[in-house]
Design goal:
With 341 residues, the protein is α/β, with parallel strands linked by helices. The protein has 11 helices and 13 strands. The structure holds uridine-5'-diphosphate-4-deoxy-4-fluoro-alpha-D-galactose.
């Protein structure tokens, strides 16, 4: 394996993955249409890795544009991140979500077929499990009908990939089901970018810490959890990025046509535990208020990561405190202008 194409490579998980791929000695080609990312991230990646990365600014849904990337490069594997990812927005922009998330996958698979690229890593989500009946969830836990269009696109994409791979003799795929990625690169040069009011917990908290938000609203305090707030399996984005490097090794060596793997830490933390960790690290209180549950939220979810540990020979190494510290460093760099986007 030499050259890896990363779609959505300037996005949050994509950019961290690109850094780890370069570090592991692979050649990387990025395609991104900047719909939810910034060109500046390319410079930041170069700064971290001291290497220029080949970049195409185009929309992969448009196959004739995407074709150029395959014509100009000999691609050995595709890591496909490029997709819309906002649960709430997906209910407003139904067709855009289906067109972009399904269309981009179809483009990727078509080009893989045409140019005989054999390896695909797909970014899926724990959202496919809905609210699982038993916890923790392993890969055989039932996939449940999604509550959002975003979630449905992930379930549909998994199915499309399975149907495609089962028809093909040479192509292989890994479906990585991410839990809740948070934090940022230790350099503080790349991290999660949000426009407008963040939906996700970590950026909302860090923006509250740096004075951009007045207070954090904790959605729901009457869940059936030890402190009443919802539980998630938060995973440091750098650990998640490294799981992709391990997945490439696995897909190259394994005889399996398709593998589905949970990527989390195996440990659940409540919203309140996250808030307490921020308070501990900062040594000051976070301004928060307990409010009603958010519509569509599940109560608790965390993963069994045995399959990732065994097959990928990978394990999450960062703890909650690392996640919090790195997220704060990134937000600090944004707020004091050390990183300009
Ligand atoms: N939360 C708050 N206040 C906020 C933001 C979030 O209390 O301002 C709570 C949420 O209610 C939830 C927890 O923090 O209990 C985590 O919420 P996030 O929005 O950060 O993440 P989600 O678990 O909702 O989202 C994750 C993935 C999505 C996926 C979704 C499906 O990040 O990609 O699960 O359930 F679609």
């Amino acid at each position: 394996m030499k050259t890896v194409l990363v779609t959505g490579g300037l996005g949050y998980i994509g950019s961290h993955t690109v850094v780890e791929l370069i570090e592991s000695g692979l050649e990387v080609v990025i395609v991104d249409n900047l719909s939810n990312s910034r060109l500046r991230i390319l410079d930041q990646i170069t700064q971290i890795s001291e290497k220029k990365v080949k970049f195409y600014n185009l929309n992969i849904v448009i196959k004739k544009d995407f074709d150029l990337v395959f014509k100009e490069n000999e691609i050995d594997a595709v890591i496909h991140f490029a997709a819309y990812k906002s649960v709430g927005e997906s209910m407003q922009k139904v067709l855009e979500y289906y067109e972009n998330n399904i269309g981009s996958l179809i483009s990727v698979l078509s080009k893989m077929e045409e140019y005989k690229v054999n390896n695909l890593i797909f970014s899926s989500s724990c959202t496919v499990y809905g609210q699982p009946e038993t916890l923790p969830v392993n890969e055989d836990s039932p996939v449940q009908e999604a509550e959002s269009v975003y979630g449905t696109t992930k379930i549909m994409c998994e199915k499309i990939i399975k149907d495609f791979i089962n028809q093909k003799h040479t192509q292989k795929a890994m479906l990585l089901r991410y839990f809740n990625p948070v934090g940022a690169h230790e350099s503080g040069l790349i991290g999660e970018i949000t426009t407008g009011v963040p939906n996700y917990l970590f950026p909302f908290i860090t923006q509250t810490v740096f004075g951009q938000r007045e207070e954090l609203k904790i959605f729901g305090s009457d869940y059936n959890t030890p402190d009443g707030t919802a539980v998630r399996d938060y995973i440091h984005v750098v650990d998640l990025a490294k799981a992709h490097v391990s997945s490439l090794k696995r897909i190259e060596e394994s005889n399996s046509k398709i593998e589905t793997i949970n990527v989390g830490t195996g440990k659940g933390y409540s919203v309140m535990e996250v808030v307490k960790m921020f308070e501990k690290v900062l040594d000051k209180p976070i301004n928060y208020k307990l409010v009603d549950r958010r519509e569509g939220d599940i109560e608790k979810i965390y993963a069994v990561c045995d399959k990732a540990n065994e097959l990928l020979k990978w394990k999450a190494e960062h703890n909650l405190e690392d996640m919090v510290r790195s997220a704060l460093k990134w937000e600090n760099n944004l707020s004091n202008g050390d990183v300009k986007l």
